Amino acid sequence: MSEVVDAHHHLWDPSRRQYPWMTGPAAVLRRPETMDDLRRETSSAGVSRTVLVQTVAELAETEEFLATSADSAGLIAGVVGWADLRSPELGDTLDRLRAGPGGDRLVGIRHQVHDEPDPDWLDQPCVLRGLDALARRGLCFDLLVRSRELPSALRVARARPQVSFVVDHGAKPAIARGEVEPWASRLAALAELDNVACKLSGLVTEAPRHSWTVADLEPYTARLLDWFSPGRLMFGSDWPVCTLAAGYAGV
């Protein structure tokens, strides 16, 4: 039987940390999601390893996630954390993270680019220097973007072929509205680059959350498979965010 790896999930505890994005419909997610919960979900779904992904722009969370991964008995195989790409001390920060508990599981960094007011946030010279620091350490950068930010992502990925980029959630197409463009044209261009991979994740919450079907997702998943091929496409549950629309096993 093939090993199943969940390339994108989260853990959180709203009693200890603020999550600014847990507003509106997402406010129902304000409940602790722990390692015990993760073990229960992955076990029932036949998932053997996972990648834990940042939820807030806090270095302390990254440190906690790395320590958690070290104590996970191998379930959490990798961590995509957060660090300030714009900081001139980024290299030292990354080296310190990798030298700490669970540091060998740090596989990448993510910033919530789609929440930035500037759609060209990635084009900043300080961000480009930060991406260079990731590449020197063999770390990838997760692109949390929507269609609005894809032109900037394309420019940056072309300019930094030495950086490995991973598009989260298929760049969040507007499935609930049935829209394909301009998402399709923009992401297809990005997918032409060999240094870009993609996560087939997070789509159920972009679809009509209480009535979605596999048929609603198919026009988008088919394009992702065509553009990236199985070799550059990975499965992610986006649990617990996915529970807004589906359970772990359902995803």
Could you explain the architecture of this structure?
- The mean pLDDT is 97.
- This protein has an eight-stranded parallel sheet, with helices on one face.
- It is globular and about 45 Å long.
- It is an alpha/beta fold.
- The protein contains seven helices and eight strands; from the N terminus they run E-H-E-H-E-H-E-H-E-H-E-H-E-H-E.
Provide the fold topology.
Elements: E1 5-9, H1 35-45, E2 49-53, H2 59-70, E3 76-81, H3 90-99, E4 106-111, H4 125-136, E5 140-143, H5 150-159, E6 165-167, H6 183-191, E7 196-200, H7 214-228, E8 233-235
Parallel strand pairs: 1-2, 2-3, 3-4, 4-5, 5-6, 6-7, 7-8
Helix pairs in contact: 5-6
Q: Provide mean pLDDT, rounded.
A: 97
Strand content: 5-15%
How many helical elements?
A: 7
Choose one word for the global shape: globular
Structural class: alpha/beta
Strand order of the largest sheet: 1-2-3-4-5-6-7-8
Taking Cα atoms only, what radius of gyration do you get, to the nearest Å?
17 Å
Flag low-confidence runs. Answer: none
End-to-end separation: 20 Å
What's a quick, concise take on this entry?
With 251 residues, this protein is an alpha/beta fold.
Which terms summarize this structure?
251 residues, alpha/beta, eight-stranded parallel sheet, 7 helices
